[in-house]
Amino acid sequence: MPGFEFFGEAERKEVNDVLDSTVLMRYGFDGMRNGHWKAKELEQELQNRLGVKHAQLTTSGTTALNVALAILGVGAGDEVIMPTFTFVATFESIMNAGATPIVVEIDDTLTLDPAAVEAAITPKTKVVMPVHMCGSMADLDALKAICDQHDLFLLEDACQAYAGTYKGKALGTIGNVGCFSFDYVKTITCGEGGALVMNDDSLAIVADQYTDHGHDHIGNDRGAEEHPYMGYNFRISELNAAVGLAQVRKTDEILSVQRRNKKILKEALATVPEVSFRRLPDEDGDSATFLSFFMPTAALSNKVVDAFKEFGIDGYWNYFNNNWHYIRRWDHLANLKSLFPISDHIKNGMQDLNTMKFPNSDDYISRNISCLIKLSWSRKEVNDRAAKMVDAIKSVL
Ligand SMILES: *Cc1c(COP(=O)(O)O)cnc(C)c1O
User: pLDDT tens digits, residue range 337-375?
Assistant: First the structure.
């Protein structure tokens, strides 16, 4: 999965362009920059690649989510529906917006269960935020229909699913706004970086302004620009954008290696009748960064984890016991542990996550094992790995 596995001369060349010009900032200094606009170029590449009208780079996937919520006008008193299984950035960005996270069940896609989303809608709901976890997608037709019917925004967290598609459209481009992360361990990396994408022209204008202190970016005298509203600094540096520019050009190669490696592992595991796989709403659009499978019971999945260790297989997770990605370990959210006071809107509007039960999510996540698909494996390594995984699983049955 991670772009850092495909790293070298191209990245160095792009970064050196920036170092040679000495202009590390994405705006201004036109005369000094030797024609290098790495952030702008990367945005253009993303637009072309994803088939979307606008891409706005940010400092991270987390800040891309922050900006997305801001430009959709989400704030105090608004509710954002999110899944039990995700990365902590989901609720961090919602809380940072001053909005209230409403956590709902996932289904066998490992992302939002549309029925659970529908049941959680209140007059305060403003956004539904599916998170395309582990390289594959939520049931976007169903979620989009719900959003259309209830006049809600669909915000896709595609941070883990860059280059995946759903029915021919790039993940992240189907909702009102989509977000990507280019942190060090993502499909392509900037070191640190992120982007939000959208087709709406007016949203794109405010995204560009909001990420740069609300500068209106009109004219060519930065100091004299107007500020139609308050913004913040979420600007990516040219150095980070330069790395991403080299990486984005490797997208097709990364995707094809991932898909080839995943296919071998999946076909091998499919020979074990007790193994079932995560449902992929569009199998052809899977970015193939992970192979996620279910064992019939949580006890068996724990045994498989132990067997993988014994057999020397690395790079897999059972998220039920992982403190980052599943609600079970979000004590700091459940207990509202914050460095600063939290608004009454959130205090009074939050679910009681200490007592609330998510039996379906518990079932899916406790039975799930997700294996990272690496780019650097040789074909022999993948074949050996597939055989070893099958042996390890069979050893516990
Ligand atoms: C990585 C990730 C983020 C946050 O991205 P950063 O660039 O690390 O801030 C958000 N959501 C998901 C699902 C992620 O995997």
Answer: 999 999 999 999 999 999 999 999 999 999 999 999 999
Q: What is the largest CA-CA distance in the chain?
A: 70
Assign domain 252-394 to its CATH superfamily.
Aspartate Aminotransferase, domain 1 (3.90.1150.10)
Classify domain 3-250 at the CATH topology level: Aspartate Aminotransferase; domain 2 (3.40.640)
Judge whether 273 and 150 are in contact, CB under 8 Å.
no
pLDDT one-digit tens code per residue, 55-64: 999 999 999 9
Which atom of ligand 1 lies at the shortest distance from residue 186's CA?
A: 1
Instruction: Report which ligand 1 atom has the smallest distance to the Cα of 89.
Output: 10
169 annotated active-site:
no
The model carries a pTM of 0.97
Of the candidates 38, 186, 266, 374, the residue annotated as catalytic is: 186
Contacts of residue 205, defined as CB under 8 A and 6 or more positions apart, other chains included, come to: none
The answer to whether residues 264 and 253 touch, using CB atoms and an 8 Å cutoff, is: no
From CA 161, how far away is CA 171, in angstroms rounded?
7
Q: Which of 66, 69, 87 best tests ligand 1's pocket when mutated (most atoms within 8 Å of CB)?
A: 87
Spans of all domains in the chain: 3-250, 252-394
Contact 276, 393 (CB under 8 A): no
Q: Say yes or no: do domains 3-250 and 252-394 share a fold.
A: no
